[in-house]
Amino acid sequence: MKYKMNKEEIMKILPHRDCMLLIDDVENNDGTAIGHYTVRGDEFFLKGHFPGNPVMPGVLIIEALAQVGAVAILDLPENKGKTAYFASIDKAKFKQMVVPGDVLML
User: Fold this and answer.
1) Annotation says 49 is catalytic
2) Which residue among the candidates 16, 24, 34, 49 is catalytic per the annotation?
3) pLDDT by residue, tens only, the chain of 106 residues
4) Model pTM greater than 0.90?
5) Inter-residue contact 37 to 22 (CB < 8 Å)
6) How far apart are alpha carbons 98 and 100 in whole angstroms?
7) Looking at CB atoms within 10 Å, which of 80, 82, 93, 103 has the fewest?
């Protein structure tokens, strides 16, 4: 079944809140999840990374991706009410910078 969750629905599944909720919506299509996050430019992490040339830190891009994965698995009936924790990632590579105005598709 295909459906889309907004931020309020995501917050019913994840414990994250502003300023650490890094996804705006999630589309779920029979086990395949795609999340989106619009980098607005006023996020706390852009103030110091890097002043005058704001770039979203790679570690937060990975966190956003982990949040989408967590929504996908915690939305399954057998995982309702559980908490998912990010454990590790191997060989992550970033192909380009993420700057204000960009929309991450995760």
Assistant:
1) yes
2) 49
3) 788 999 999 999 999 999 999 999 999 887 789 999 999 999 999 999 999 999 999 999 999 999 999 999 999 999 999 999 999 999 999 999 999 999 999 9
4) yes
5) yes
6) 7
7) 93
